[in-house]
Amino acid sequence: MRTRAQRWAEDAYNRVKARAQGDKEKAKKYKDMALKFPVLVRQAGLSQALAFVASRGEEAHKNLVGDLAQTLGRKGLEALAEEARNAELLAYLRLTREVLGAAEWYKRFAQALIEE
Which of 62, 88, 109, 110 is the most exposed place for a label (fewest CB within 10 A)? Predict the structure, then answer.
């Protein structure tokens, strides 16, 4: 039986690898957001970080958070943001922990697979 973290790691690896093989400029921006997103969540909070990416983020940034949401079993960025906005406190804290846990895999794989 595989752990939740193992499933997240496998899914993140596959998604980052696919992005790394695409457009190099978009891959670089994807990597930049992968490195910054966990810090953004810790500093601003999950709802605010998702709202920031949805409103001001570039396409590559939205792709990262959309991939992250799909790794967590959500349909995409908007579904994850909606869930975060409507969650009760304990559910919000758990969702934040899950997002940070999966985001760490994206960060690691982006560092390893996407070249400068």
Answer: 88
CA dist list (Å): 55 to 16, 32, 37, 91, 107: 23, 17, 15, 24, 22
Owning domain of residue 18: 4-113
pLDDT tens, position by position, 8-26: 999 999 999 999 999 999 9
What is the phi/psi pair of residue 57, to 5°?
A: -70, 155
Q: What is the CATH number of the domain that holds 15?
A: 1.10.520.30
Please give the tally of structural domains in the chain.
1
pTM for the predicted model, two decimal places = 0.94
